[in-house]
Design a protein that fits this description.
0% of the residues lie in helices and 49% in strands. By secondary structure, the chain is mainly beta. It has a domain at 7-50. Strands 1-2-3-4 form a four-stranded antiparallel sheet, with no helix packed on it. Strands 5-6-7-8 form a four-stranded antiparallel sheet, with no helix packed on it. The radius of gyration is 22 Å and the shape is globular. The two termini are 21 Å apart.
Length: 358
């Protein structure tokens, strides 16, 4: 389905197997006016209807919030106010919970009794890395923080892998991607990946299985909540002419000099990216082909691959290679994937397409 001329999609949300909610931006509208608006797309009726949805008021870039699972509290923090603050949903009253300048990223426990967060030690790491941090726990009833005995250093952020049990923490800085696993039950931390192969690395937290998937150059690797490898397999090959393996590829080689795919030799970057799991937990999807866009590309964009959730039985589900970014979305039923794309023949136009999943 063709979008209006000179429009691109900022946000795409699947409401059903046929209806989408999208945020569109008109690039020809004066930048001082409201260039963006919400619309509903009906894929069956082929209609686009502008809605009256108010554009969400954007939070200041230096301020963040995280609502508790019970809905009783919101944890708020920012670069201009020391510590993490609690905001009561009922009264709007604010209470300071932690007081270190640089405390951030609260992960609520599932019962709302407290949260884990990054505690700032006050030591400036320099080189733009900000404050040294470590993991801490805040008990809401006791109004007490406990600094835990994990590594101190650069921590970029936290995400639950298994709620209340294990945390995936980013600790890569500058030109390094780093992820480590924190297991709260046994108090361990394990470095999962630390690499400068920025273009060839992607990750996915799969909530249904409680596993972390890392796509690094040439390999898919699944980790459990303790950071142990539970499965590993090569990237798919011979799905079509663009996915032939480079005969000179070496696992220990430089991916930019000896890439995994033959079409990446002296060309653009080629590989899987944009990992997503289906809502029902049965499928893994990703884009396969050109990563980004380069004048050296030998692959004309990307196709999409859908496999079983463990990566087996990969299959291409697009007839043609198209130009698209990572922002595609599964339908709630897991029976459709909706994509926003353009073609080499009409790069100035954007289209919304659907891929049925049998």
């Amino acid at each position: 389905m063709e979008l209006p001329a000179n429009h691109f999609v900022e946000v795409i949300e699947a409401l059903s197997d046929s209806e989408l909610r999208v945020k569109l931006t008109d690039v020809q509208t004066d930048i001082e006016t409201n260039r963006s608006y919400w619309a509903l797309i009906d894929m069956n009726m082929k209609t686009i209807t502008k809605t009256n949805d108010a554009a969400a008021e954007e939070m200041p870039t230096e301020y963040w919030e995280a609502e508790s699972p019970t809905g009783k509290w919101t944890a708020a923090w920012g670069t201009n106010t020391p510590g993490i603050w609690g905001i009561s949903t009922d009264t709007g009253d604010k209470t300071q919970w932690t007081d270190s300048d640089g405390d951030r990223n609260p992960l609520w426990l599932s019962d709302g009794s407290g949260f884990y967060y990054l505690h700032s030690t006050g030591v400036n790491l320099g080189d733009g890395a900000g404050f040294e941090a470590t993991l801490a726990h805040y008990d809401l009833a006791a109004r007490k923080s406990t600094i835990l005995t994990y590594e101190k250093g650069f921590w970029g952020g936290l995400n639950w892998l298994i709620p209340d049990v294990s945390i995936v923490a980013s600790n890569g800085f500058d030109d390094v991607i780093g992820l480590k696993m924190i297991n709260l039950l046994d108090g361990t931390e394990k470095q999962i990946i630390e690499t400068s192969h920025l273009d060839y690395v992607d990750d996915l937290i799969d909530e249904k299985t409680g596993r972390l998937l890392i796509s690094d150059h040439g390999k898919f690797t699944w980790y459990d909540g303790k950071g142990d490898i539970v499965n590993q397999m090569d990237w798919p090959v011979d799905l079509d002419e663009f996915t032939r393996k480079n005969p000179n590829y070496s696992e220990d080689g430089n991916p930019y000099e000896h890439p995994f795919y033959e079409k990446g030799v002296k060309g653009g970057r080629v590989g899987p990216h944009g990992l997503k799991s289906s809502p029902d937990g049965n499928y893994l999807s990703y884009l396969l082909g050109a990563i980004g866009e380069s004048i050296d590309d030998k692959v004309p964009g990307v196709k999409m691959v859908v496999s079983k959730i463990d990566g087996t039985d990969p299959a291409l589900v697009l007839d043609d290679y198209v130009r698209m970014d990572r922002d595609y979305v599964w339908s709630p039923s897991s029976k459709r994937i909706f994509i926003v794309f353009s073609t080499d023949a009409a790069r100035e136009r954007a289209y919304v397409g659907e891929i049925p999943i049998e």
